[in-house]
Amino acid sequence: MKIKEMLEKREGLISNVKEMTELAEKEDRDFTEEETKSYDNLKSEINDLGERIKEAEELRKAEDEIKESRAKLDVTEEVLEPSVESIEEPGVYHRGGEHSFLSDAFNARNGDYLAQERINRHQQGNGEKRDIGTGAFEGLVVPQYLTDLVAINARAGSPFYNALPKAPLPDKGMKVELSRITTGSTNAFQATQNAALDETNMDDTLYSVHVNTIGGQQDISRQAIERGTDLEAIVFSDLISAYYTELDKQLINGDGTNNLPVGIRNVAGINTVTYTDASPTVGELYPKIIDAIQKINSNRFAAASAIIMHPRRWGFLTAGVDGNSRPLVLPVANEPSNALGLGDAAEYGQVVGQLAGLPVISDANIPTDDGGGNNQDQIYVVKADDHILFEETGSPFRLRFDDVGSGSLTVKLVCYGYVAYASGRYPAGITKIQGTGLVTPSF
Questions:
Q1: How far is residue 350's CA from residue 71's CA, in Å, rounded to a whole number?
Q2: Where are the alpha helices (DSSP H) in 83-214?
Q3: Are strands 341-343 and 329-330 parallel, antiparallel or unpaired?
């Protein structure tokens, strides 16, 4: 159901509640038993629609932010949207569906035979132990009007992931096989008329990218779900947030072992720039960024498309001033002239500004414990469209095993997906800036 349709349906239900209330007030009486039951069902459905509308609006906002970021980076491929599935009955409960699992679980206990029928169709499973009880959700087992104040766990998110081109993962297999041309054709001036033209046989090397699995789960007591408010949606939201944050982290830092992808930090043969400085300044860092860009121009023979850095490094750049204490990186709204860079210090993730004509993406998944003192971060200049992230269509999947822990009243929620990251197609399209000039900045 689309947001507009859900809004219209909620407005109709609210109108029905209003009519019931006005009629009772006009006749100066309380609700009858039948009216009370109808009123409670209407209120439950209105609350459920409210949560689904809020969830859909948050998803649309996130998608808009991703599209805006990708547009600035000229990445035109469509982002694969996560799908929602149920392991037993994917058509019964899913995001934007006609029925809410939580509402049905409650209404089934109160005699709603249609809700009971849907729950019965949904249930299957075996046994598991309970991991999370109501005590883990003390802040959530509260009246409906307080649940909007829930503070979801803050995470670094997936700024770099959002900038990458996506492609569907092949249906079968645990590897994606790509070809890399290692010996190309040659041309030469013809020595004399009728002389043989230059010929060099092309040769390629097989580039294998492993399919990696990402996933997480929560075992939650039925008491927490039934006595809490919309916990299923909140837990799935947190699992998906953790999914994308971990994916983004390993797209940068993965070393290719233990089912991890090879992140840009560990691709063999990338360009490197070392910035050594006991007293680093913005003015001294800037030439290193230009050097990183020219290395891609010189070795990849193409233009870089983005600069990826930790938020603290973007803060360092936006805090830089010249000899007259004037900032070097200025907000676009100021319409500056002759500025070193453009951007907003308060922004995070996505595109936060520009340096040397390239968009800057801040990403807190870049480590800050590099170097001998374990206090350095890195800056990456990349040609983002050299990288391809293959994703299983529909990832991340959301599964609910409603009866796996029936003996202990447990519900298992699972989030997982399959990806394959081709980061090494063009190693020369990546430059890493590192060194003592990137220690923890002082402000």
A1: 11
A2: 101-108, 113-122, 159-163
A3: parallel
The closest of 253, 314, 304, 252 to 73, measured between CA atoms, is 304
Identity at 362, one-letter amino acid code: S
| Selected residue with higher pLDDT from 317 and 125 | 317
How do the residues of the chain divide into helix, strand and coil, expressed in percent and rounded to 5? 40, 20, 40
Longest dimension (CA), the chain: 110
pLDDT digits (tens, 9 = 90+) for 163-186: 899 999 998 889 898 888 888 899
Q: pLDDT tens digit string along 325-384?
A: 888 888 776 667 677 877 777 778 778 989 998 999 999 999 999 999 999 999 999 999
CA distances from residue 212 to 175, 176, 389 in whole angstroms, order as listed: 9, 11, 11
Q: Are 412 and 218 in contact (CB under 8 A)?
A: yes
Cis before 441? omega within 30:
no
- What is the SS3 assignment for 223? helix
* Residue 391, Cβ density class (10 Å: 0-12 exposed, 13-18 middle, ≥19 buried): buried
Give me the residues paired with residue 208 across strands.
177
Torsion of Cα atoms, 191 then 196 then 198 then 199, to 10°: -170
Coil/strand/helix, residue 411? strand
- Identify the three-state secondary structure at position 235: helix
The first and second tokens of residue 147, run together, are 């649940």
CA distance 390 to 262: 13
- Rounded to whole angstroms, how far apart are CA atoms 232 and 343? 38
Distance of alpha carbon 208 from alpha carbon 174, whole angstroms: 10
Both tokens assigned to 94: 């899913």
